[in-house]
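Worked example 3. Consider a protein that binds adenosine monophosphate.
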Amino acid sequence: MSDCIFCKIVRGEIPSKKVYEDEDIFAFHDINPIAPVHFMIVPKVHVASLYDAGPDHQAVLGKILAKAGELARGQGLADGFRTIINTGRIGHQEVYHLHVHILGGPEPLGSMLKRK
Ligand code: AMP
Ligand code: ZN
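Given these inputs, the predicted complex is written out as structure tokens:
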């Protein structure tokens, strides 16, 4: 996808603070962090959202989750972290290239969602 912002980051056309890269996945710090440590892991292949993912993406999605702990460890998150995938309008997804947020820091992050 030529005009997708995360595809551009993967291709190096937009600068990012890279955490990790291999042939299948790319990880970089969120430009507007909502926790002391906040980075994202994305597949290099363009997949709009988890809703759009299918059997073709099984390996790369598994790779992202299998790599999350190691990358979190590298960012000092030995005491735990939160993993978030926002999907679609209801999930408040802003960038339509599937990404896994990794959030953490020295203090607990609080409950998952605020009760109404
Ligand atoms: P989401 O709501 O899950 O789609 O979140 C998209 C995330 O991408 C937000 O947390 C943004 O701060 C982040 N973001 C948007 N543009 C960039 C960028 N150029 N570099 C790094 N993070 C970005
Ligand atoms: Zn993309």
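Take a moment to read the result before moving on. The first strand starts at residue 18 and ends at 21. The pocket of adenosine monophosphate (ligand 1) is lined by residues 5, 14, 16, 30-32, 86, 92-95 (CB under 6 Å).
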